[in-house]
Amino acid sequence: MSYVKYGVKLSAGQKEKLAKALSNKSAITIRLTKSDLIGHDELMLTRTQLKRIQKAMKNKTGVDLKISKTQIRHVVQEGGSLWSTLFNLGSRMLPYATKAVTKAAPALATGALSG
Q1: Beta bridge partners of 30
Q2: Which of 79, 72, 71, 64 is nearest to 18 (CA)?
Q3: With 70 as the cut, is the pLDDT of residue 8 above it?
């Protein structure tokens, strides 16, 4: 599938959501208001998603976009300012993820041993 690079305006929360989806290798849905339809945060969108954005702009409404894990991976591969933001958010989330795994690992090991 081919993607088109398109700039939208993402909030800090949406960027964090993208970073979590990147680390979890999962899809997400992002809600864009009419004022968020044009911006500097580049996403890799399908032609259908691009048409939905154009239709929303024409109707002066917002749109919900489902971003697949493949699209998120393409954002990373293409680079750009959003990639550096996702990378920074991901590196900030790493200590929390490590802490969660450290707490969960003993319980998982105990459960595995007790069978």
Answers
A1: 65
A2: 72
A3: yes
